[in-house]
Write the structure tokens for this entry.
Amino acid sequence: MSTLSRAVLRGGIGFCFVSLLVFATVAFGERWMYARLGEMGAYIVWTLAFILLGGTVLGSLIADSRWRLPKFYLLWGLAFFAYAAGWVFAYFTLRGAAGEWVGSLVGSLLMTTVFALGFKAARSIPKLSLLLFTANSAGYFLGSMLNEYVGGRTGMLLWGIAYGLLLGAALGTLLYLLQKPRNVRPSDYCARPNEL
């Protein structure tokens, strides 16, 4: 991955498609899944779908051949599972908007921590967690507002698009920065105009 802007675009667009597919299963199959798998079982299936589909998209952002599939799949799987576990635990504990906000915070922190430790860049956890939390929350809550406004299956699909686009762009940024730890200064956590 040669430029930050390319990582942001590939992460955003690629993960948007992944999210759209997963959210389509919610839009068209949520009742069926809840009836057969239960609420927790459905969340596990959706988590596995994000891991399986997202690993292919995000794995294409890895330049170092040591991290190619399946090794990246393992790192991504651990990172997304930690994110989902933190989010679901917070949501089922607190419920409502508080559960969603705390879930976004805890999930983002856990995902960033797994990635940063995997790339041996633990010092970057606070700044990258903030980046991921901001984009994750923006995508999730923008999508939620679209879902509330439009409603039905179309609203759910719009939620998936907003969530996937913003979270994917942040993941692209995160992976780009983690692969260039020696070249990254604190000011680089915000994209420079000539890289957009």
The two ends are 15 Å apart (CA to CA). Residues 91 and 99 are 4 Å apart (CA to CA).
